[in-house]
C-alpha cells in the first residue's frame, strides 16, 4: 500500500477533527442569518451581560468576590457559546463554574470574615456535583448508549485531569500565606519547565540530528526511546531544581527534593499518556502528520504542570501549615 501524502493526511485529519459550527450557531442562524462574525459577537455580548450581572450580585454580597465572579462567568459563558455542540457547551460551563466556585470559596475562607463563611463547600464536593450534572446531561442528550458512555468517560477524565487539579491550584494560590513562599511555589514550575525543556531537546536531537547522523537510530525500539526520553527529562528537571534552589536560597530539605522529583516524574508520565492517546487515535499532536518541536497542542503544554501538581500539592499544603504555625 503506497504511503499517503502528508499534506493530504493533514487536510483530511483537520476536516474530521475541526468542528463545523459553534454551539451558539443555532441561535445566530435564526436571528442574524448570513451575517459575518455573528456567532463571536453574540458570544461576547452574552458573556459580557452575564459577567455584569454576576459582578453586580457579587458587589452587593461581598466586594472581594467581584473580580472572581466577573472573570469566571465571562470565561465560562464565552467558552460555552464557542463549543462544538450545545452539550459540550454546558459541560464546559460546569467545569468553569466549578473553578469559579472554588476560587470564591477559597477567598471567603482566607480573606473575609463575613457570614458567608458558613456557606463554604469543599472543592471535592463541587467536583462531585459537577460530575453528576455532566453525567445526567450526557444521558439526556445522547441517543446512543456507546456515544453516551464515551462522552461520560471523556468528561470524567477532563474533570479529574484538569478541573480538579486546577481547583487544588486555586486552593493553594489564593491562600494569603502563599505570598510568603514565592520561591517554594516557583520551584515547582521551574522544575517541571526544566524537565519539559529536556524533553524537547531530546526529541529535537533524536528526530532531527540522530536520523541524519546515525542510521541505526531509526531502528531503535520506541520503548527504549521513551525510557531515554524520561531519563533525560528527569535529569533536566533535577538540574533546573538545583539551580533554582541555589539562586533563590530556598529550603534544600529531603522532602522538598523528593516532592519536586516526584512531581517531575509523574508529569513526564502524564505527558507520555497524552502522546499515547494521540498515537492510539492515529491523530498526531496539533493535527500534524510530521513532528516538530513546537507542534504540541495546549493540553500537551499544560499536562505536565497539571499532573505534577498531584504530587506537589500535599507537600505545598504542609509548607503552608508550617508557615501558619510559625506565625502563631
Automatic annotation (TrEMBL):
The keyword Transmembrane appears for this protein: yes
Query: Which parts pass through the membrane?
Result: 35-58, 64-83, 90-111, 123-141, 148-166, 186-205, 226-247, 253-277, 298-316
Q: Name the UniProt key words of this record, in alphabetical order.
A: Membrane, Transmembrane, Transmembrane helix
Query: Protein name, please?
Result: Uncharacterized protein
Q: What species does this protein belong to?
A: Peronospora farinosa
Amino acid at each position: 500500500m503506497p504511503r499517503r501524502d502528508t499534506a493530504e493526511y493533514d487536510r483530511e485529519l483537520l476536516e474530521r477533527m475541526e468542528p463545523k459550527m459553534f454551539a451558539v450557531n443555532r441561535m445566530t442562524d435564526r436571528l442574524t442569518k448570513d451575517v459575518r462574525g455573528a456567532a463571536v459577537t453574540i458570544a461576547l455580548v452574552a458573556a459580557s451581560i452575564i459577567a455584569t450581572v454576576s459582578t453586580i450580585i457579587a458587589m452587593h454580597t461581598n466586594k472581594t468576590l467581584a473580580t472572581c465572579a466577573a472573570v469566571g462567568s465571562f470565561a465560562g459563558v464565552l467558552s460555552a457559546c464557542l463549543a462544538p455542540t450545545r452539550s459540550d457547551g454546558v459541560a464546559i460551563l460546569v467545569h468553569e463554574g466549578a473553578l469559579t466556585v472554588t476560587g470564591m470559596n477559597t477567598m471567603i475562607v482566607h480573606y473575609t470574615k463575613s457570614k458567608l463563611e458558613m456557606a463554604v463547600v469543599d472543592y471535592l464536593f463541587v467536583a462531585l456535583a459537577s460530575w453528576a450534572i455532566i453525567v445526567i446531561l450526557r444521558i439526556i442528550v445522547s441517543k446512543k448508549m456507546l456515544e453516551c458512555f464515551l462522552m461520560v468517560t471523556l468528561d470524567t477524565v477532563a474533570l479529574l485531569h484538569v478541573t480538579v487539579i486546577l481547583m487544588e491550584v486555586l486552593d493553594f494560590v489564593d491562600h494569603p500565606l502563599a505570598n510568603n513562599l514565592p520561591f517554594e511555589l516557583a520551584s515547582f514550575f521551574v522544575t517541571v519547565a526544566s524537565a519539559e525543556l529536556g524533553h524537547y531537546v531530546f526529541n529535537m536531537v533524536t528526530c532531527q540530528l540522530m536520523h541524519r547522523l546515525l542510521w541505526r537510530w531509526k531502528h531503535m525500539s520506541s520503548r527504549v526511546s521513551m525510557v531515554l526520553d524520561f531519563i533525560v527529562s528527569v535529569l533536566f528537571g533535577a538540574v533546573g531544581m538545583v539551580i533554582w534552589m541555589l539562586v533563590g536560597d530556598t529550603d534544600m530539605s529531603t522532602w522538598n527534593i523528593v516532592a519536586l522529583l516526584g512531581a517531575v516524574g509523574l508529569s513526564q508520565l502524564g505527558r507520555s499518556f497524552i502522546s499515547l492517546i494521540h498515537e492510539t487515535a492515529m491523530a498526531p499532536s496539533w493535527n500534524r502528520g510530521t513532528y516538530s518541536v513546537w507542534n504540541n497542542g495546549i493540553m500537551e503544554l499544560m499536562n505536565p504542570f497539571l499532573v505534577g501538581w498531584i504530587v506537589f500539592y500535599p507537600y505545598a499544603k504542609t509548607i503552608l501549615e508550617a508557615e501558619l504555625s510559625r506565625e502563631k
